[in-house]
Amino acid sequence: MSALKLSGIGHAYLGRTVLDAIDLEIAPGEIVALVGPSGCGKSTLAHIAAGIVDPQRGQVARCYARHGMVFQEPRLMPWATAADNIAYPLRLSGARRAERRERMHAAAAKVALARDDLGKFPVELSGGMRQRAAIARALVVEPEFVFFDEPFTALDQALKRRMQDLVIDAAAAQSFAALFITHDLIEAVRIAHRITVLDLNGRGIAGDRALPGIPGAREDRTVFETVQHFLHDDPLFGHINDVDERKVA
Ligand code: ADP
Ligand code: MG
Q1: Residues 33 and 20 reside in one and the same domain
Q2: Residue 226: how many CB atoms within 10 A of its CB?
Q3: Residues 178 and 128 in one domain
């Protein structure tokens, strides 16, 4: 049984193919990092997998009850407090007020958002705090699957690391499966059980690599050496930085 299974996914925008013949299977509790150069179709694949975009070809099988999503930008409602943003999915599902409060506080605790911050509006929060609220909003439904689309790309290095640890801890505690999109190989190697590489032109999955040990238990040295090995000795990662028009620290 898999949590998510994509079979033969193909998609085109305005007649231009961005994804073709994508097969990807993620097991329950498995964190898969999806890497590939900018513009190769990663976000499109995530949208298709999450059911936001209907693929033109292929099938998506979602074998989980609930999923959450975290994007590069926090996408919080500016007119609502952090607390109300986090609880919003519960409001949609019709949960009662007391239950919403309790679950909102539990989710906020997982991302170390203080009570003080919960009453603030997005504009009053730092970038890191906004992204914490966005993660809490994804976790509040107790998802069995979480889609992360380059969630930490906009954050500075030190903050990025803390946020990665937070995801690693939450995944271990809640044992959700995840598709974690990133073009930061260090991030991929820290967070995931497996890395899968999208072809440069979205023509299928170029290949995947199991990662040693378990997320959260890998030493920095192991992470560093694994990344160096991928970049210098593994042809699968040869094109990874080819067409990245953005600056990556
Ligand atoms: P990635 O997330 O890997 O950077 P995307 O999935 O965002 O890639 O985009 C893949 C390609 O499809 C890019 O060339 C992008 O410009 C194009 N694209 C993405 N969304 C749309 C859209 N809604 N309409 C037309 N073209 C799009
Ligand atoms: Mg993208």
Answers
A1: yes
A2: 22
A3: no
Would you say the CB of residue 182 lies under 6 angstroms from ligand 1? no
Would you report the helix, strand and coil content of the chain in percent, each value rounded to 5? Answer: 40, 25, 40
What distance in Å separates the CA atoms of residue 211 and residue 197, rounded to the nearest whole number?
A: 13
Q: How far is the CA of 38 from the centre of ligand 2 (A)?
A: 7
pLDDT tens sequence across 143-202: 999 999 999 998 888 899 999 999 999 999 999 999 999 989 999 999 999 999 998 777
Considering the domain architecture, whether residues 7 and 90 belong to the same structural domain is answered as no
Residue 66 near residue 142 (C-beta atoms within 8 A): yes
CATH number of the domain within which 17 lies: 3.40.50.300
Give the mutation target among 44, 200, 245 for probing the ligand 1 site: most ligand atoms within 8 A of CB.
44
Q: Is 44 in the pocket of ligand 1 (CB under 6 A)?
A: yes
To test the pocket of ligand 1, the residue of 9, 13, 183 to mutate (highest count of ligand atoms within 8 Å of its CB) is: 13
Residue 70 in any domain: the answer is: no
What tens digit of pLDDT does each residue of 128-143 get?
999 999 999 999 999 9
Assess whether the C-beta atom of 38 lies below 6 angstroms from ligand 1.
Answer: yes
> Is residue 168 located within the same domain as residue 200?
yes
- Is this structure's pTM higher than 0.90? yes
Calpha distance 210→213 (Å, rounded): 9
